[in-house]
Design a protein that fits this description.
It contains 8 helices and 15 strands. The chain is an alpha+beta fold and 428 residues long. Among the domains are: 23-49; 53-63 and 317-426, Elongation Factor Tu (Ef-tu), domain 3; 152-279, Helix Hairpins (Orthogonal Bundle). The strands form 3 sheets. A 6-stranded antiparallel β-barrel has the order 1-10-14-12-11-15. A 4-stranded antiparallel β-sheet has the order 2-9-7-4, with no helix packed on it. A 4-stranded antiparallel β-sheet has the order 6-5-3-8. Helix 4 (133-152) packs antiparallel against helix 6 (208-282). Residues 225-259 form a coiled coil. It is found in: Membrane. Its main location: membrane.
């Protein structure tokens, strides 16, 4: 079989190109292109920048404004403040219509705080306490019972009577003790006489009748002495019994006094709790020091509904300003504590007034839902002076809003270019 002939597959022009050595200019051009490619690739490694995550921000002080909300429906019967007035903590702002008299409630509070069990409890006039009246009536009855117990003092009267009896018994005991000394002497004399008469009887000098009379007298003196001893022992036993009775009466008095005081204290604590609940429902108090802004009412005799904000207390201390961030879930994993944040306030256009800067100090561990959106909350530290990057001093107002730009950790450009390839590689 005839071998195939070699076929010429390259044209004459191609052969000229492949066969010729590149000129110096071409080699330099290739080198420059290669250097540019190396420079660009190197630049993608050294050039890095952060992602920016935007979030809503609201500025507060460390102590935020407090809204006073009505806990019941009704008319404002008393208003004790005026617009923009400086007030202190626990200052009474307003009273909502109810069946109790506010001044009488204050009198009752003072009574409960200063009640002294050692003094007689007196009320000068009837108090109008509304829904607290029943508990107050029970308290008065318990006070009366306790004062009667202290005034009658049954146990102490019994103890006083027993002490008098003990004193009489001791006096009688001392008398018998003296008689005992005499009885001892009489008994000794009778015994000596008996011994003498016994010797005379044995010698036949004394008759039996005379001896028996002497013996009888001795026995009578001995019996009398023993009776005295028995009486002394009996009196000692009675005194001890009376002293034991006093101890029992003291214990009974203490127990009954403690029981009545416990019951009375329970009544006092119950009244204090009822007063606290009454104040929560009908008395609007400021929980902090600050400046009050009336939002729903401006004079008494206006109606208010449960849950409505009657006034807002603005803290006077504007130091320690913080920001509350609402961060979307997208990219939240890149947000870390101490990352810098640029703040653009709605009140101060940033192109005119500049930006504020802060750092993230805290991030919530779980998301929350606000207006149907799932977000994470974070806290931001902001310089107290509120000086922008333009050098402008921005005036602080509570609840100022704006946009926060969170600057995440820097990422190299090369890494960003490789992310799609990395995703494709791991996907396959």
């Amino acid at each position: 079989m005839e071998k195939p002939k070699n076929i010429e597959i390259r044209s004459e022009e191609i052969q000229d190109i492949l066969g010729s050595v590149p000129s110096r200019i071409v080699r330099i051009g290739i080198g420059i292109v290669f250097c540019i490619i190396i420079f660009v690739i190197s630049g993608t490694w050294f050039f890095k920048y952060p992602d920016i995550i935007q979030a809503k921000i609201t500025l507060y002080t460390k102590t935020p404004p407090v809204a006073l909300q009505a806990k019941s429906n009704g008319m404002i019967t008393s208003l004790f403040v005026s617009e923009n007035q400086q007030i202190n903590k626990n200052h009474v702002v307003a009273i909502i219509e109810n069946t109790a008299n506010y001044n009488d409630i204050q009198i009752l509070k003072e009574i409960l705080d200063t009640l002294n069990y050692t003094q007689e409890f007196r009320i000068q006039r009837k108090l109008e306490l509304g829904e607290l009246q029943s508990a107050y009536t029970s308290f008065l009855r318990l006070c009366k019972d306790y004062m009667c117990f202290i005034k009658i003092d049954y146990h102490q009267n019994q103890i006083h009577s027993i002490n008098s009896h003990i004193t009489d018994q001791i006096t009688y005991f001392n008398i018998l003790q003296n008689q005992k000394e005499i009885k001892i002497q009489e008994l000794n004399l009778a015994k000596e006489q008996y011994e003498r008469d016994k010797n005379l009887f044995n010698q036949g000098i004394y008759s039996k009748l005379d001896f028996e009379q002497s013996q009888k007298k001795y026995l009578q003196e001995k019996l009398s002495y023993n009776d005295t001893e028995s009486s002394l022992a009996n009196i000692k036993m009675q005194i001890n019994q009376l002293k034991h009775k006093i101890s029992e009466l003291n214990l009974q008095h203490l127990k009954e006094k403690q029981t009545q005081e416990i019951i009375l204290n329970e009544s006092i604590e119950n009244l204090k709790s009822l007063i606290k609940n009454w104040e929560m429902k009908f008395v609007l108090k400021s929980p902090i020091n600050g400046e009050i802004t009336l939002t729903k009412i401006w004079s008494k005799n206006q109606n208010i509904n449960t849950g409505e904000t009657v006034a807002t207390i603005i803290p006077t201390d504007n130091s320690n300003i913080i920001g509350r961030l609402e961060i979307p879930t997208t990219g939240i994993g890149k947000v870390k504590i101490n990352q810098p944040v640029n703040i653009k306030l709605d009140n101060f256009p940033y192109m005119e007034f500049g930006l504020l800067r802060g750092t993230i100090s805290n991030i919530s561990l779980i998301p929350s839902s606000i207006n149907g959106n799932t977000i994470y909350t974070a806290e931001l530290n902001i310089p107290d002076s509120l000086i922008s990057n333009y050098g402008e001093h921005l005036k602080f107002n509570q609840k100022m809003t704006g946009i926060a730009e969170i600057l995440t950790d820097d990422t190299r450009l090369l890494e960003r270019l490789l992310h799609p390839l990395k995703m494709i590689y791991h996907k396959n």
